[in-house]
Amino acid sequence: MSVTLADARRVIEAAEKRADEIGQPMNIAVVDAGGNLVAHVRQDGAWIGSIEISISKAWTSKAFDISTKDLGDNSQPTQQFFGIHTTNAHGRGVAIFAGGVPLTRDGEVVGAVGVSGGSGEQDQTVAEAGAAAF
Amino acid sequence: MSVTLADARRVIEAAEKRADEIGQPMNIAVVDAGGNLVAHVRQDGAWIGSIEISISKAWTSKAFDISTKDLGDNSQPTQQFFGIHTTNAHGRGVAIFAGGVPLTRDGEVVGAVGVSGGSGEQDQTVAEAGAAAF
Amino acid sequence: MSVTLADARRVIEAAEKRADEIGQPMNIAVVDAGGNLVAHVRQDGAWIGSIEISISKAWTSKAFDISTKDLGDNSQPTQQFFGIHTTNAHGRGVAIFAGGVPLTRDGEVVGAVGVSGGSGEQDQTVAEAGAAAF
Amino acid sequence: MSVTLADARRVIEAAEKRADEIGQPMNIAVVDAGGNLVAHVRQDGAWIGSIEISISKAWTSKAFDISTKDLGDNSQPTQQFFGIHTTNAHGRGVAIFAGGVPLTRDGEVVGAVGVSGGSGEQDQTVAEAGAAAF
């Protein structure tokens, strides 16, 4: 029911294809139902600062069963979840900006893909391409 | 192709000169292409809280190939990268305010300088003076 | 000169083949010259506790240009590096047991592979198989 | 009474000279009376894993007003301080192997130098050369 390595590779392959199309090298991470990393790749030239962010986005998306983009909308100052990005001091950082997208099977979130390396819009389209291949 | 200790010392010397001119003691750090520290100095009287910040600024600037000032503009509430400052829980903190400037060679970012100890404007001018000497 | 994603995939493929041969699912991580993660996979059934360890082993091996097995021999009680495993509080943990092996090009260590998921002997043979494919 | 940047540079210069003599590139860090970093250099080719260790050694040496070599002798299994290397979870790691040496003025420890990059014996001789120049 969770995400196999073969699943993760299929998601990453589709995400990489989209990243190549838009010409922006990316970090791409996939986590399983437990929020644990299944696979990660950093495309040549992608930011080293985005390694951890791609994993954080994937973790966050599964951890709350939501896209990080939608979580982010609710986490701005004055919004209901403002401050959530600093709550997990002993674990993964909570990412509250676009690029983390749930992986769903039979209506249930069983994992997530996280993408970091470009603008929020670029990260989102690459993550969505990955999730679509799941 | 990366940053040697001699490079780092030249950058720090120029940054220190600028800090002396404006009369504000600073922490100055230089990282290489892998984001790893090459050298750091704390001028007499500079804040001890700025030791780590100067290193974080240098790391951040190389990690995302951008000045921390420009990154900060995109990391304000409602902007596309809001929340990025807490994402790297397992590594260096991501700094989203002025004072981190990339070091560029042949059009490629091969390192960065990070400065902390004064106002954003002061940190920025000292970091830029350092980068100009690279 | 450093490790490309294609390099990392070749290393991981060879390491996975060896893990399959010995029938022990593994986490396999590859870092570049700066110690930054290039790629990671967790084979189906591999321990989730070994995700971080595989990355730590790869980082450690590059960070000190040595196999973690050899570092470990020098890090036992009364040996010269005893205690090194807790020194990097602000970065990656230092791994002092078998499974991290340098990736060498023209006599220079330009990256490393880290493997975790079995006994020390199993981790080591899988890491060596990966490194041999570099 | 504490360690100025000029002091730290004199210590580092002497330590670098000794490192060059023995042909082993080093990380060298100096902290002041408060245990806070004054300056750090990584010589070309020195291990990136030793950046943090050099700072930890300097911090530890000042934090307990003792050389890390002597502290290490008391921190082996069955000795009185065994376990001290993991006590500072929220701060600097405590280093319990050679390479951290106090800087003394008028019989008082006012800072320390930490060296990492070679064997325990090499680290120690470089740190002692640095301290002698204080």
TrEMBL record, chains A, B, C, D:
Source superkingdom: Bacteria
Matches recorded under Gene3D superfamilies: Haem-degrading domain (3.30.450.150)
InterPro entries in UniProt: GlcG_carb_metab_protein, PduO/GlcC-like, PduO/GlcC-like_sf
SUPFAM superfamilies: GlcG-like
PANTHER family membership: PROTEIN GLCG, SLR1406 PROTEIN
Record protein name field: Heme-binding protein
Annotated source species: Microbacterium trichothecenolyticum
